[in-house]
Amino acid sequence: MRIEDYALIGDMQSAALVGRDGSIDWLCLPRFDSPACFARLLGTGDHGFWRLAPAGMEWASRRSYIPDTLILETVWETAGGTVKVIDFMPPRHENPDLVRIVEGVSGTVEMTTEICIRFDYGRIVPWVRRRDGLLHAIGGPDSVWIHSPVPLEGGGYRHSAAFRVSAGDRLPFIFTWHPSYQPPPEAIDPIAQLAATRELWEEWVSRCTYHGPWRDAVVRSLITLKALTYRPTGGIVAAPTTSLPEHLGGVRNWDYRYCWLRDAAMTLEALTSTGYLEEAAAWRDWLIRAVAGRPEDHQVVYGVAGERRLPELILDWLPGYENSRPVRIGNGAAGQVQLDVYGQMLNALFEARRRGLPPDDHVWAMMRAVLGFLEVNWAQPDEGLWEVRGPRRHFVHSKVMAWVAFDRAVRAVRLGWREGPADRWQELRDRIHAEVCAKGYDPERATFTQSYGSRELDAALLLIPIVGFLPPEDPRVASTIAAIERELMTDGLVLRYPIAEENPIDGLPGTEGAFLACSFWLAQARAMTGRVAEAVELFELLLSLRNDVGLLAEEYDPRLRRQLGNFPQAFSHIHLVRTALALDRAVRAAGAAARTAR
Questions:
Q1: For residues 581 and 212, is the Cβ–Cβ distance under 8 A?
Q2: How far is CA 306 from the centre of its chain?
């Protein structure tokens, strides 16, 4: 199936992808970054899946989330009748559970289910036996119990059943993971858990303060971001998947099941801007634990509990999604230098404080240590926002975000929120600003460039007015936007930077799709420079690229009309939320100006 043919369910500690065909093809337990027990997404049926659907091929289906929840409903219509399958992961108690409830709607439907359990990303075929009327699969540290209302028959290292569902029937299936060395878990009440899960999500959504024209899209994105939050620690993963390709058949396949400081900081801003200060406090606590220690030892990415060692490995037994190899786990970006993350952190904490998050002296002490490190190192080259695997450069975006770090620190002191050497920080802020304008701007082409002395463009330059480095009315802003529209746009969407096979900027072969966050940035930049109608038009185009349940991957291929990259991608949903809020303000301001003019 295509990447966009999947929907997300989860319990804020792990997540599963459910396909349009009723097959769960990806599930890592007990955490987002644990080895998968269903890995067909990156392999074949022999690598693990669980399908639950009508028998045969003569059926039509439609699916949606129960409004304001992460509970998925798929309705199947057949010649004999209609049946509904409800998929969800209830709030976790002792062990993670995955529940699938089959409900007869009308007539009678012949159903099938087939489950193939494989631990360690499809590598381990477990030992399966029947105990107390249940299936019990065990392999090394992993153990799974399957509660099935119909008998499951084994064969070919899989288990399956055919059964009939009539109107009014309700058949719950439960899949429970637990450590193999612990006693069997207690069974849950699936119907009660369905009600509890629905109540949990509806209560959470009720706290959203955004009620603008794009509320449905914003709420779905916020639910997705919440689902990608590791509840025990407050860490926010970039995506629940690994190695979904940025180019079909290519090597740009990365593991995103970790917490990038940049992504998490932007998620924090999206959440605080819509009323979720509790999540902001949890992330701030995670941040302090993760970066505790010397600033020179800070990483750009951590595990969900703050782990620092994320060695990058290749799973050579998996053929990859549509033969996109290699399949990787771990992420080598943990060892990179990306100076922009400090600006993202300071900006997120500044915005959270502005929106009402109580101050924390310990946090400020650590941020002062970060600023001290940045004072010494801001002028160094780095791998930048896009985590290039080529040589380090003086990326303009990294310098702009260093400016942001000192700007927010100065503003915090001037507002009386904190104490610090504001005069020294202001002097350094102004020096960074002058250097970027002198070395990062090409007057001949009338545009900022990707790095000092280069001629290449970078979509991250669109953030210059958004973060306040230059005002929107500055002619250099308008000319840079125009250059990006001229050179980095394809079929109305924005590429991150030019990709050249013979001389790749990022040190990698192959191409990639349009990076969705960059197109959201363009919509914001257009709105800020007075092009509100064009901004709304682009935003509506981006909303149309979501799948049928409102989810976005990292990239989109306009030629193939397919989503690409890890899915669903926090970065895309973060900027959907931020852009909706920005456009809402711009549309209201434009309307007010028009009324005043009349």
A1: yes
A2: 18
pLDDT in tens, 375-433: 999 999 999 998 887 789 999 999 999 999 999 999 999 999 999 999 999 999 999 99
Q: Do the strands 158-166 and 235-236 form a parallel or antiparallel pair, or are they unpaired?
A: unpaired
Task: Output the pLDDT for position 315.
Answer: 97
The DSSP secondary structure of 451-483, one letter per residue, reads BTT-----GGGGHHHHTTSS-TTSHHHHHHHHH
Pairing of strands 81-88, 555-557: unpaired
Backbone conformation region of residue 337, classed left if phi is above 0, alpha if psi is from -120 to 50, else beta = beta
Task: Provide CB contacts within 8 A for 436, sequence distance 6+.
Answer: 396, 399, 400, 403, 448, 469
What is the C-alpha radius of gyration for the chain, rounded to an integer number of angstroms?
Answer: 25
Q: Measured between alpha carbons, how far is 304 from 424 in angstroms, rounded to an integer?
A: 36
CA–CA–CA angle 27, 551, 512 (5° rounding)? 90
Q: Phi and psi dihedrals of 330, rounded to 5?
A: 80, 170
Q: Which of 322, 314, 316 is nearest to 250 (CA)?
A: 322
pLDDT of residue 46: 96
pLDDT at 509: 67
- What are the φ and ψ backbone dihedral angles of 68, each rounded to 5 degrees? 65, 30
Query: 54: Cβ–Cβ under 8 A, 6 or more apart, which residues?
Result: 76, 78, 83, 109, 110, 111, 112
Distance CA 224, CA 8 (A): 8
Name the stretches of the chain with pLDDT < 70: 500-507, 509-510, 595, 597-598
Collapsed DSSP state (helix, strand, coil) of residue 254 = coil
SS (H, E, C) 51-89: EEEECCCCEEEEEEECCCCCCEEEEEEECCEEEEEEEEC
State pLDDT tens for residues 411-424: 999 999 999 999 99
Q: Which residues contact 589 (CB under 8 A, 6 or more apart)?
A: none
The amino acid present at 570, given as its one-letter code, is: A
Helix/strand/coil (H, E, C) string of 88-149? Answer: ECCCCCCCCEEEEEEEEEEEEEEEEEEEECCHHHHCECCEEEEECCEEEEEECCEEEEEECC
Angle between helix axes 570-597 and 532-544 (nearest 10 degrees) is 150
Query: Which is it for strands 97-116 and 81-88: parallel, antiparallel or unpaired?
Result: antiparallel
